[in-house]
Amino acid sequence: MTPILVLILLLAGIIGVAKTVRMVPQGYEWTVERFGRYTHTMGPGLHFLIPVVYGVGRKINMMEQVMDVPSQDVITKDNAVVKVDGVVYFQVLDAAKAAYEVAQLEVAILNLVMTNIRTAIGSMDLDESLSKRDEINAKVLHAVDEATHPWGVKVNRIELKDIQPPRDLVDSMARQMKAEREKRANILEAEGLRQSAILKAEGEKQSKILEAEGSREAAFREAEARERLAEAEARATQYVSEAIAKGDVQAINYFVAQKYIEAFKELAQAPNQKFVLLPMEASGILGSLGGIAELAKDTLGKSSARPGS
C-alpha cells in the first residue's frame, strides 16, 4: 500500500472514532438523530454512536439560565408612558421538547415576557404599576410559565428591574412629595404650638390654684390667730373684771397701762409719722406704771406666802 493510501485510511479511522465516541459535559443533554430523525437523548458522560447512521442533533443547556429583558415603552391604563426592563430565570426540563417544539427558544421566551409585561402594566394605572411590582411579576410569571410548558421549559422567576415614569411626571411627583412633607411639617409645628399653649395654660391654672390655696390657708391661719388673740383678750378682760369686782384697783391700773403702751407703740411704728407731739401728763403714765409695780409686788408676796416656797 502506498503511503498516501495509508494516510487516508488513518485519517478515516480517526474521524470514525471521533464520530463514534461522544462525551456530553455536565449540565448539558444532547439529542441523537438517526438519518435526521430524533431517537433519544444523551445525558452527561461517555456515549458511542454508529457513524453516518446516528448523529448529534441539538446540544441543550439544562442549567438554570438568566436572560435580560431589554427596556421597552409601556402605556399604562391612564395613558402614561413608562420604560420597563427586567430579567428572566428559566430552566430546560425536557431537552427533546426544547429542541424540536420551538425554534429559537430564547427569542420565543423573551417575546413572551415582553408581551405579558405590556399586558400586565397596561391594565393598571401609573400609581398601581409603581407600587404593585410584585403583583406584576406574579402575573407575568404565571402567563409565561404556562405558555412555555409545552416547550419543556420551567420559568422560575421574572423580576422587573426598573420602571421609569416620564421625566415631567417624576418632577411633578417630587413637587407633590415636597408639598406633602411641608404640609406635615406645618401640621406638626402647629400641633407643637397648640400643645405648648395648653401646657402653659395648665401651668398658669395650677399656679393660680396653688396661690389661691396658699391665700386661703394664710387667711385661715390669720383668722385662727385673731380668734386666739380675741380669746386671750377676752380672758384678760374677764380676769381684770373679776379683780375689779373683788376691789383690786391695781389690776385695772395694769390693764390701762398696757393698752396705753400698746397705743403709743403703734403710733411710733406708723410709717407716715416722722414727728409725734404728745400733749399728755407724765404723772398719768407714772401712775399707771406705779400700779403695775404694786401689782407685781402683790403677786410676788402671795407667791412667797405659799407653803413649800
Q: How would you portray this structure in words?
A:
By secondary structure, this protein is an alpha+beta fold. Helix content is 60%, strand content 21%. The protein contains 8 helices and 8 strands, in the order αβββββββααααβααα. It has helices at 3-20, 95-100, 105-122, 126-131, 133-148, 167-245, 249-268, 282-304; strands at residues 21-24, 28-34, 37-42, 45-48, 54-61, 65-75, 81-92, 153-164. The chain has a 3-stranded antiparallel beta sheet with strand order 3-2-5. A hairpin with a 5-residue loop joins strand 6 (65-75) and strand 7 (81-92). Helix 3 (105-122) runs antiparallel to helix 5 (133-148) and helix 6 (167-245) runs antiparallel to helix 7. The radius of gyration is 59 Å and the shape is rod-shaped. The chain starts with a helix and ends in a 5-residue tail after the last helix. The mean pLDDT is 80.
